Amino acid sequence: MKTYTCIIVDDEALAQDLIETHLKKIPNIEIIAKCHTAMEAMSVLNQQSVDIMFLDIEMPDLTGVEFLKALEKPPHTIFTTAYSEYAMEGYELNVVDYLLKPIRFDRFFKAMSKVLELLKEKEPQTTEPSAEKTSNEYIFVKSEYKAVKITFDDILYVESMQKYVKFHLSDKMVISLMSISSLQEILPQKQFFRCQKSFIINLNKIESIEGNLVVLSSRAKVPISKNLKAGLLKLVDRNGLI
To answer: Do 29 and 107 lie in a common domain?
Structure first.
């Protein structure tokens, strides 16, 4: 899990210490500064990136509200104050939460859960290898009393033969006892398309679409059902050129 940076801006040392104590109970949070004034906080923000800011509203010289209004790109901010009447103004400034002093840990934890959820939403999403089959995967199928390896990239198309399926590969054919429907559930959907009741094609092997026929790289022609053609064209027309 990523570590998030945090600063505490409060002119009261005891208030800073309480927030720091609460933060130590939450993993992957690094306190990079404890500031007594808005000017100190501004110096920190100008020098490094900060993810979370705890900001006291009542401070000398420049209040927390005035300071936040002056920032072009503020961190995710949680207001802290002893006065509940500031709550509405805080929400108008799009702060994540508003904590009333003295801050209880249960309320503090709720505010931190909000801000961590917002930070996670900004992180780039990664796909786990198991979540979606990739093009270089394979399966083993039973054929002529042997377990035969079928690499997805080698499949041109698959043809249903009642209780069997025939794999038309780049260099051979393999027949296996299984239904085409069960095979459809195994093959990665981003790479394969069932274009007709009896045929599944490898989208990467399409050379052209001529009427209701798909011409593959082997020059083999596979029929497309009329009601499925629009779906196939949508898959292959990534740039909206057709």
So the answer is: yes
pLDDT tens digits, one per residue of 208-240: 999 999 999 999 999 999 999 988 998 888 767
Distance of alpha carbon 176 from the chain centroid: 37
Which domain, by its residues, includes 63? Answer: 4-122
Domain with residue 147: its CATH number is 2.40.50.1020
Of 182, 121, 192, nearest to 152 by C-alpha is 192
Amino acid at site 234: K
Q: Locate tokens 């196939």: which residue?
A: 232
Can you give the pTM of this predicted structure? Answer: 0.52
For the chain, the three-class secondary structure string (H helix, E strand, C coil) is: CCCEEEEEECCCHHHHHHHHHHHCCCCCEEEEEEECCHHHHHHHHHHCCCCEEEEECCCCCCCHHHHHHHCCCCCEEEEEECCHHHHHHHHHCCCCEEEECCCCHHHHHHHHHHHHHHHHHHCCCCCCCCCCCCCCCEEEEEECCEEEEEEHHHEEEEEEECCEEEEEECCCEEEEECCHHHHHHHCCCCCEEEEECCEEEEHHHEEEEECCEEEECCCCEEECCHHHHHHHHHHHCCCCCC
